[in-house]
Amino acid sequence: MTDFAALLKALAQGGVEFIIGGGAAATVHGASRLTLDLDIVYERSRENIERLVSALAPYRPYLRGAPAGLPFRWEAATVLNGLNFILTTDVGPVDLFGEIVGGGGYDDLVDGTICIELYGIRCRCLAIERLIEVKRAAGRPKDLEAVAELEALLEEMEKG
């Protein structure tokens, strides 16, 4: 089970610039679909990456689905040389995206976010309109199913 509170607290206390996306963002907007991981888009400056690495290090990040013993070093150089990381941690899975399909990176997305409070932590989350756009662009069956629900939620919000 994912400890969303622990992950968000670590990121926030570490001063990491990030945006919640994916299923967690859909849930924020009222979607009923269960999500098992935390998807975030992180800002790609060296300083932010160093904060990200430090914030998650106590939870022993490792490549999700990779065989045990595969050489993987959770350090700033690894993240700087990569982009997207699908990880398992001691507190649950977290997907770190330098860029997302249909949305780009942190700087491209930040204007399409809202500020929310989860578990007493202030953070950025993709606004429902932007979330619909990126899920539609991803085009996977599960994303398109989520789009239908999110569009219905958006229509209800606009009515009320």
Task: Characterise the protein shown here.
This protein is α+β, with helices and mostly antiparallel strands and 160 residues long. The longest helix has 19 residues, at 141-159. A hairpin with a 3-residue loop joins strand 6 (99-100) and strand 7 (104-105). The chain has 7 helices and 9 strands; from the N terminus they run αβαβαβαββββαββαα. Helix 1 (4-13) crosses helix 3 (46-56) and helix 6 (128-138) packs antiparallel against helix 7 (141-159). The mean pLDDT is 95. The chain has helices at 4-13, 22-28, 46-56, 76-81, 106-109, 128-138, 141-159, and strands at residues 18-21, 38-42, 62-63, 84-88, 94-97, 99-100, 104-105, 113-118, 121-126. 34% of the residues are buried.
Helicity, in percent? 40-55%
- Output the helix-strand order: HEHEHEHEEEEHEEHH
Largest sheet: 7 strands, mixed
- The spatial strand order of the largest sheet comes to 3-4-5-2-1-9-8
> What's the total count of β strands?
9
Principal-axis shape: globular
Average residue pLDDT: 95
What separation lies between the terminal Cα atoms? 34 Å
What share of the residues does DSSP label as strand, in percent? 15-25%
- Show unreliable segments: none
Structural class: alpha+beta
Overall radius of gyration: 15 Å
Number of helices: 7
